[in-house]
Amino acid sequence: MSSNLRIGLALSGGGVRGISHLGVLKALNEVGIFPTKITGSSAGAIAGAMYCQGYRPEEVLKIIVETNYFKFMRPAISWKGILKMESVGNLFKIYLPHDDFSQLKTPLAVAATDIRKGKVVYFDEGELIKPIMASACIPGMFEPIQIGNKYLVDGGVLNNLPVEPLDGTCDFVIGVNCNHLPEESNIKNMKNLIERSVIMTMNYNVYSRKAKCDYFIEAPGLGKYGVFDIKKAPELFQAGYDIAMKLVEENPGILELANFPKSQKEKAL
């Protein structure tokens, strides 16, 4: 493959289901496919930022499992949300200490939603941590994040597969969705009904962008996992890895994108 090929990877939001993106990245890396630019919404923005910082997918999984994410959250005394996300910034500063898009090893763009204007906003330069928090700011659960004069919430509200920042900058685009819904014959309760409806809405705006992807990866049935079901992290990671490897097996042409970094080529030899 030509080392000049630009490979874009768009990662959907989906709460803890986004851990499956790490498994996908591990599988792609193992066959020599390394994205040259990553975009993400919500959980996809978080997974993307950690990978773009230079952490290996397995390292990110370990950090997520061992970190009590919720201890960094504080109650919000406001009608705008139940919890504040601002204190989560302290956690991100441990792993992204430079707080700067330009310092990432791989270029990243994240999507958030301007709740006042009803428009998608993309961030790919300047401060890094607040845009990531904005991208993952679930409406109603968290207070909106203010950046400049914008009040921002979860990017997945309007764009849960942000392929647009990859248009014209990448030769190939791989989209990854972590919210595939299994068929449900019995809606058990109101919670189940609301959760399923929200995922359907997110998936609608994902599937509307599927045609923009040269390859589309979606592990079956991940929509059955709860947004905060962190105990399932290893299972979700494995699901992402398995479906990506299956894609490679069924589409050997994707290996034309393979380009091992020099250090990994030497190891392979």
Automatic annotation (TrEMBL):
Active site: S42 (nucleophile), D154 (proton acceptor)
The keyword Metal-binding appears for this protein: no
Domain PNPLA stretches: 9-167
Motif annotated as DGA/G, chain positions: 154-156
Pfam families noted in UniProt: Patatin
Residue ranges annotated as motif GXSXG: 40-44
Keyword terms: Hydrolase, Lipid degradation, Lipid metabolism
Short sequence motif named GXGXXG, residue ranges: 13-18
Name of the molecule in the record: Patatin-like phospholipase family protein
Organism: Algoriphagus confluentis
